[in-house]
Amino acid sequence: MVRVLGLDPGLRVTGWGIIDVEGSRLSHIGDGVIATNPSLSVPDRLKTLHDALGALILRYSPNEAALEETYVNRNGAATLKLGYARAIALLVPALAGLPVSEYAAKTVKQTVVGTGGAEKSQVQMMVQRLLPGTAIKRADAADALAVAICHAHHRSTRRAWMALSAGQ
């Protein structure tokens, strides 16, 4: 069994989701968001994110972490702030000794929904189907769970390929 922390990083709101993976069986453990106070300075908001992610790792003891890769949009300042949040989301699990994987948004959607152009509502619906009984209140949390599900799928595929390669 492996416990995966999925993250959908953002400076304003970072979604998180935790699943357990046992073979092909996925179990929902927890999800939510970390919201930073927009009236604080960027360094203080990053500290808030750092401290909250550290507390999540201590509370849930994940074995691995995964997050969505950054996309670049037309607003350079917004992209830069997203990059700050991603840096914290990459750093905190790494400092805790967790392997961290990254996935493109299209890969996450393709894995969870079956199409790389899926809408957020489709992602949320499929997350709830793949993790029965999950009551997701925020799209950011659903996205984080989708990243964790994507990692679980790709992780098992990588392991199968490694086993095949070792047998040759």
Describe the structure.
With 168 residues, the protein is α/β, with parallel strands linked by helices. The protein is 52% helix and 22% strand. It has helices at 42-60, 76-95, 105-112, 120-130, 139-167, and strands at residues 2-8, 13-22, 25-35, 64-68, 100-103. A five-stranded mixed beta sheet has the order 3-2-1-4-5. Strand 4 (64-68), helix 2 and strand 5 (100-103) form a beta-alpha-beta unit. 36% of the residues are buried.
Please name the defining characteristics of this protein.
168 residues, alpha/beta, 5 helices
Task: State the gist of this model.
The protein has five helices and five strands, in the order βββαβαβααα. It is an alpha/beta fold.
Strand order of the largest sheet: 3-2-1-4-5
Which secondary-structure class do the elements indicate?
alpha/beta
Sketch the topology as an H/E string, one letter per element.
EEEHEHEHHH
Rough outline: globular
**Amino- and carboxy-terminal Cα gap:** 27 Å
Taking all Cα atoms into account, the compactness measure Rg is 16 Å
DSSP strand (E) fraction?
Answer: 15-25%
